[in-house]
Specification:
The chain is of the alpha/beta class. Helices cover about 45% and strands about 10% of the residues. It has 21 helices and 13 strands. It has a 4-stranded mixed sheet with strand order 1-2-3-4, with helices on both faces. The chain has a 3-stranded antiparallel sheet with strand order 5-6-9. A two-stranded antiparallel sheet has the order 7-8. It binds glutamic acid.
Length: about 500
């Protein structure tokens, strides 16, 4: 059997959209599941959209997400390098290749030079619109002879090269998600293949590269579906075997609109900055427009590779559901390696001004316990800032009604008094002390259960719910506990 070769072919326009990450992911899963190769190609032929540093950003986002590719563009020591036998993998470095194939099409009569100016094209389009026609090239230059065209070029006239589509021809191809699709050439435009700046258009470059790079399956967003018949026709014109097509449903928001920057977070970087874990984002994205046969929702990359198939990709758009992402990500936060999670949490805590480098060095173990204590309630790591604020404040105002109620209980005073005494009696609040102190108080003053724990919790954290009390006691330490009890006694108890 032929080796599976797939590619992800983003344009470096600034950032990796999560829809793009999903496309990359499905390519990767399919390649891995078939012992195939996955290629990263950069499609930068539209120079007007080029953004400095965008390639590095793309590579970095894929790397972060754990999506590995075998060939293409990599970043090593901050520099772009290309690896693989089918390079270059950056389209702007392949211009002479495209030129050769454009010339071949012209020679064979599948393409023609076009000298129409922008003004003329605009005018034609306007007239067509007025007549209620779909705007398209009217074919004026189709009948120019090759000699005439070459003469005009020699005279310095600007030109583009267009695909010469035959009239009224059905073009048929099979898409693994959408089945058989037929489009008549009468509904298609004579696509520009080579622009006046000497760069190929996407359509020309994508076909040449996919063929030369031995791509067997083209897996991309459905926005490219209308272009596919032109690509199929180009394969026929060159006499090349066409690849298998797989068009993925667009990632939509809850209103079934395309997920766009205007509506909030859309780039992989946005989610990374919020403290979504790569495993959480990838696991969730896999489920946007696809479901495993097992209907499982938490799947490791290995399980995704094992279970993934195009047959189970849905035809209709996949809805991006932030709450579900949070649920999946929360699962990963709870089960993540604690050291790794702590490393991810540290920048957020620094940013909030809670800790600095010294703190990290001196109190790393304490930080780990802090992360362990609060991770249960987080759906992304940025939320840790709010979750841990009780451990970094000098005093806490009690605003919560239920908490204020607890402070009115008759047991509150004796409980806090006993706690204060126990804490004053030790040099340091260590883990052993934290584990045993409540039992001790229970024994000495005879208050137990809710009546014992609630006042303690409220005095130390200001809330009736929260992390485990033993951890709260340990994390706060001697001085903080004493300060808080004193503050509560002074301001809330009489
Ligand atoms: N360069 C196109 C993009 O930016 C790739 C389309 C394709 O995969 O053919 O999405």
């Amino acid at each position: 059997m032929q080796e599976v070769r797939v590619r992800f072919a983003p344009s470096p326009t600034g950032y990796l959209h999560i829809g793009g990450l999903r496309t990359a992911l499905y390519n990767y899963l399919f390649a891995k599941g078939h012992n195939g190769k996955f290629i990263l190609r950069i499609e930068d032929t539209d120079r007007t959209r080029y953004v400095e540093g965008a390639i590095e950003n793309l590579v970095d986002s894929l790397h972060w997400a754990g999506i590995k590719y075998d060939e293409g563009v990599f970043v090593e020591d901050g520099k772009l390098v290309q690896r693989g036998e089918y390079g270059p993998y950056i389209q702007s470095e392949r211009l002479d290749i495209y030129r050769r194939y454009v010339d071949e099409l012209i020679e064979k009569g599948y393409a023609y030079y076009c000298f129409c100016t922008k003004e003329r094209l605009d005018k034609v389009r306007e007239e067509q619109k007025i007549k209620g026609l779909i705007p398209r090239y009217d074919g004026l230059c189709r009948s120019l002879s090759l000699e005439e065209a070459k003469e005009r070029i020699a005279n310095g006239e600007e030109y583009v090269v267009r695909l010469k589509l035959p009239p009224n021809k059905d073009i048929t191809f099979t898409d693994l998600v959408r089945g058989e699709i037929t489009i008549n050439t009468d509904d298609l435009d004579d696509q520009v293949l080579l622009k006046s700046d000497g760069f190929p258009t996407y359509h020309m470059a994508v076909v040449v590269d996919d063929h030369l790079m031995g791509i067997t399956h083209i897996v991309r967003g459905e926005e490219w579906l209308p272009s596919t018949p032109k690509h199929v026709y180009l394969y026929e014109a060159f006499g090349w075997e066409k690849p298998t097509y797989v068009h993925l449903p667009t990632v939509l928001n809850k209103d079934r609109k395309k997920l766009s920057k205007r509506h909030g977070d859309v780039s992989v970087e946005d989610f990374r900055k919020k403290g979504y874990l790569p495993e959480g984002l990838v696991n969730y994205l896999a489920l946007v427009g696809w479901a495993p046969e097992s209907n499982k929702e938490i799947l490791t990359m290995e399980e995704l590779i094992e279970e993934f198939s195009f047959e189970r990709v849905s035809k209709t758009g996949g809805i991006f559901d932030k709450e579900k992402l949070d649920w999946v990500n929360g699962h990963y936060i709870r089960s993540y390696d604690l050291d790794k999670l702590t490393e991810i949490a540290i920048p957020f805590l620094k940013e909030a001004g809670y800790i600095d480098d010294n703190f990290v060095e001196e109190k790393y173990e304490w930080l780990k316990i802090l992360v362990e204590t609060v991770r249960e309630g987080l759906s992304n790591v940025s939320e840790i800032v709010d979750a841990v604020d009780i451990f970094f404040k000098d005093t806490i105002e009690i605003e919560d009604e239920d908490a204020l109620d607890v402070l009115k209980w008759e047991e509150t005073k004796p409980v806090l008094k006993a706690l204060k005494e126990e804490v004053e009696n030790v040099d340091e609040v260590d883990q052993e002390f934290a584990k045993t102190v409540m039992k001790k108080i229970q024994k000495s003053i005879g208050i137990k259960g809710k009546k014992l724990f609630m006042p303690t919790r409220v005095a130390l954290s200001g809330k009736v719910h929260g992390p485990e009390l033993v951890s709260v006691i340990y994390l706060l330490g001697k001085q903080n506990i004493l300060n808080r009890i004193e503050y509560i006694e002074k301001n809330y108890l009489n």
